[in-house]
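User: Assemble these into one structure.

Assistant: Restating your components, then the assembled model:
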Amino acid sequence: AQSVAQPEDQVNVAEGNPLTVKCTYSVSGNPYLFWYVQYPNRGLQFLLKYITGDNLVKGSYGFEAEFNKSQTSFHLKKPSALVSDSALYFCAVREWNAGNNRKLIWGLGTSLAVNP
Amino acid sequence: DAGVTQSPTHLIKTRGQQVTLRCSPKSGHDTVSWYQQALGQGPQFIFQYYEEEERQRGNFPDRFSGHQFPNYSSELNVNALLLGDSALYLCASSLEGSGANVLTFGAGSRLTVL
């Protein structure tokens, strides 16, 4: 069965410091991996995805994520955090298989607080 | 270019009642997915509609049903409401065949069941 774990409920970083939001996954086949961000009273917004190819994926707003197959991880990173990055971040996985599975499985989310 | 619009934004119902939530997908999108997000939780997949048919369904009871119209808009219906149905209901649209179904979400409909 597919699953996603975001081991940290909250991450606190100082503005200008690098940030990492962790995600590990479990699928039986090949994964499609996603990061979305949710601001208060707004819908989820797509940040980046991994399908295949280069393990380092670059996305919106300066975010990037590194796919690590051996560790089944897809951690979100940013070299220099901004106060405006403060939001709720969700990792999601879709198992790619011949059955045309389109269901995304989501983590519980990690609340990122960037302090001025 | 309008994104995904959902209505109503907030609503309050009592146990046993029925509710209908509506969604208009992003222009150019043909696929609509519905998710339930309880407080402090990640979204849970309810079902996905494409070509006016339910294509895939998550682990939700038959009280949850939906519909997709020829203009790609969609409705989510929940019958016999329970207290546990209180949640944010998110509609997401995508374009079939666009690869790895990147979803565009609406702001959601917050349902409170008393």
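The longest strand of chain A covers residues 87-96.
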